[in-house]
Amino acid sequence: MFGPEASNFVEGVDKAFFIIMGIGAFFLVGLTTLMVIFVIKYNKKRHPNAVQIKEYLSLEIAWIVIPLIIVMFMFYYGYIAYKPMREAPADALNIKAIAKMWEFSFEYANGKESNTLIVPFNKPVKLNLFSRDIVHSFYVPAFRIKEDMVPDLKDNFMWFIPTELGKFDILCAEYCGVRHSYMMSTVEVIPEDEYNAWVAKVEKKSLKQEMKGFEILKNNACTGCHSIDGSKLVGPSFKGLYGAERTVITDGKERTVKADDEYIKNSIFSPDNDLVKGFNSGLMRSYKEVLKDEDIKEIIEYLKTPDEN
Ligand SMILES: [Cu+2]
User: Fold this and answer.
1) Residues 232, 185: one domain?
2) N vs C: which end of the chain shows fewer Cβ within 10 Å?
3) What is the pTM of this model?
4) Distance 182 CA to ligand 1 centre (A)
């Protein structure tokens, strides 16, 4: 009814949703109908003198007790759907889910990393949730699960059993800045033997990806806006940057500069001074207070290193 139904939590969540929607719809229709009837029945022409009702105990008891029963009913279905979400089975597969502006990444027990979440079919999976910068929210509509990812919050988790093979969307459900709407990933449910084979293959990182400069760029979330593969994101790509000619806007005038050490440092400390043509100003903060001179040196070292393939 609401798209794919791919986890053990679908039934409980959908039931609670339907019950609450149903009660809401009942009152919407009921109250609107009563309002129309009252407007007709008690308008001034038909009913010139208003009647004052002073005490009506049974009515007062009714409008306290009936809504109480209704909200407790809604609470009950919400609670029985929610309670198991907080009780991850002890044998669940542990995977680390990390959010940062503006991407999700996943780390498996053996050190394997990936940008899509791969999980085995019909096995409980526990995601330990982390954020590197600000509050994000991990949301898989097909699984009916959503949980905030809060920086420095300990033991934050969600769990599920995938009950359908296939690919499902992961979305960030907490507005987190300019590229929030692009902060998406995929969860792929595959048979257990395929999963075991996949997770056992740990790709070696390239030497360039192991450089300290790259670590600094990643940890400061630079790579969220500056791609390393040449694609255009919020800011210009890092690929092929060092030593290249750049057309920039300085004080409203267009000029061409060479991307050398000085240019890179200046771009990190005062991003809007020489704005690369085709990009918008005011989107990047100054990292003058954040990055030390050694960090800048490491970043330049990284940018200077040619790609291996
Ligand atoms: Cu986000």
Assistant:
1) no
2) C
3) 0.69
4) 9
